[in-house]
């Protein structure tokens, strides 16, 4: 299918943009508990208008919605979330954050991309699919929407585990994806896991005069020693046992990485990076397949103007690990504790922060993944960029673990989308093509002549 052959979806696109405008106006900020039940109500109404049966379950922060409609040889489970990040700092927005505003081909507003725009584009495509098939859906569609993703999805893993029978599907369409400036779709077949921690050290009940540094140890020195012991200059984590469980990359993974364009030049240029890690040739391998340790912040002592000759009583460092299959977050914390003890750093405490996420990666040769790639090529008119994994993290693992289905991420984000930042946006062009993709993808899955899925 070329863009010239694309069906006229203008009415569905305009209706989708109206839906998006209404949803953006709902300030569903999960970090602050704002308008979450109201937004769940609005999402429920949109789904019920398309003949979905919607079940609502309580979550720790916001309701979890499970919807179902249609019938056919394939069951597709779609995952989205209806919560958004806080709008702060408000003064950096060019237009009101909770009013969808179109400017120079971009649609601005909190949630325009992450994740209300993604949800609405898929819903608009589903409407077009129903219209194409005389009011029915040629496949069964299940939809799970949560309102806690932006605070770490604390309810989701247990929910998916406990409702696995209800959520059974042949494939899962993940909540995000992106398109290059040239209009080339980027797909992801996995996510890295994540462990967020604080390392804390205290040496006294209060700060001391720095002259006592001759006889009192310094918590920032202790923390610096701890951090320096965790990785080498190449970025490889040096904790004994850390890499023992890393799953070897498959031949399909390596072939996909070899086809990825460039060597990170756009990233390094956009952020004026002065110290890239690794070589240009291993850029994509590191992003997709390499576990990583990051230092997010180093805190303690005096940091204002001039000097203050003080020996701080305490300090802390925020770190995160990005993990790959089959690393277990709990085991990583245990290995870290053992390593610090071996280094003589028993007084450095480990504080676990947000919920851990396990890594997940689908088989790139699975027919579901290959259908997503093929349809992307047809709709966008260019070969898709297929990544075995995103460098980021999210709650994908429970779907693969308990539902037993492959997962693929393809969506409507863009490199200048400013997700989580002021002036979040999506290109109208990408929204429109996303509606077209949703129609074509679900239509292909519902085709009884399509290759049957395997590996469930």
TrEMBL record:
It comes from the Bacteria. Keywords: Hydrolase, Metal-binding, Protease. It comes from Deinococcus radiopugnans ATCC 19172. Gene3D superfamilies: 3.30.70.360, Zn peptidases (3.40.630.10). One of its GO terms (cellular component) is cytosol. GO terms for molecular function: metal ion binding; peptidase activity; succinyl-diaminopimelate desuccinylase activity. It holds the Pfam family Peptidase_M20. The keyword Metal-binding applies. The lineage of its organism: Bacteria, Thermotogati, Deinococcota, Deinococci, Deinococcales. One of its GO terms (biological process) is lysine biosynthetic process via diaminopimelate. This is Acetylornithine deacetylase/succinyl-diaminopimelate desuccinylase-like protein. Residues 190-346 form the Peptidase M20 dimerisation domain. SUPFAM superfamilies: Zn-dependent exopeptidases. InterPro entries: Cyt/Met_Dipeptidase, Peptidase_M20, Peptidase_M20_dimer.
């Amino acid at each position: 299918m070329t863009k010239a052959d694309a069906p006229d979806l203008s009415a569905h696109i305009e209706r989708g943009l109206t839906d998006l405008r209404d949803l953006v106006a709902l300030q569903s900020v999960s970090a602050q508990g704002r308008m979450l039940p109201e937004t769940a109500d609005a999402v429920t109404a949109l789904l019920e208008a398309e003949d979905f049966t919607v079940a609502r379950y309580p979550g720790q922060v916001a309701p979890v919605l499970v919807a179902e409609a249609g019938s056919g040889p394939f069951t597709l489970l779609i995952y989205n979330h209806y919560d958004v990040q806080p709008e702060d700092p408000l003064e950096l927005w060019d237009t009101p954050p909770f009013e969808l505003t179109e400017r120079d081909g971009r649609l601005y507003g909190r949630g325009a991309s992450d994740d209300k725009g993604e949800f609405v584009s898929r819903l608009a495509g589903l409407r077009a699919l129903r219209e194409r098939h005389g009011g029915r859906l040629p496949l069964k569609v299940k939809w799970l929407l949560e309102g806690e993703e932006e605070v770490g999805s604390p309810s989701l893993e247990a929910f998916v585990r406990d409702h696995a029978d209800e959520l059974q599907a042949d494939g899962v369409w993940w909540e995000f994806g992106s398109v290059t400036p040239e209009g080339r779709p980027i797909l992801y077949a996995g996510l890295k896991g994540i462990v967020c921690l604080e390392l804390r050290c205290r040496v006294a009940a209060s700060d001391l005069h720095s002259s006592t540094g001759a006889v009192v140890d310094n918590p920032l020195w202790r923390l610096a020693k701890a951090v320096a012991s965790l990785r080498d200059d190449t970025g490889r984590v040096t904790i004994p046992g850390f890499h023992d469980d890393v799953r070897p990359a498959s031949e399909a993974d390596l072939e996909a990485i070899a086809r990825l364009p460039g060597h990170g030049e756009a990233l390094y240029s956009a952020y004026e990076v002065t110290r890239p890690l690794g070589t240009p040739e291993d850029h994509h391998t590191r992003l997709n397949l390499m576990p990583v340790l990051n230092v997010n912040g180093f805190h303690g002592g005096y940091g204002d103007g001039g000097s203050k000759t003080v020996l701080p009583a305490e300090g802390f460092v925020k770190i995160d690990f990005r993990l790959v299959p089959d690393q277990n977050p709990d085991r990583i914390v245990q290995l870290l504790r053992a390593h610090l003890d071996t280094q003589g750093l028993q007084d450095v405490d480990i504080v676990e922060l947000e919920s851990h996420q396990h890594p997940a990666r689908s088989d790139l040769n699975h027919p579901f993944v290959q259908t997503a790639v093929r349809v992307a090529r047809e709709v966008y008119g260019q070969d898709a960029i297929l990544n075995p994994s995103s460098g980021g993290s999210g709650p994908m693992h429970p779907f693969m673990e308990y539902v037993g289905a492959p997962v693929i991420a393809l969506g409507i984000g863009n490199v200048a989308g400013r997700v989580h930042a002021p002036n979040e946006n999506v290109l109208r062009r990408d929204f429109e093509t996303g509606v077209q993709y949703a129609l074509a993808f679900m239509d292909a899955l519902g085709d009884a002549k399509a290759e049957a899925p395997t590996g469930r």
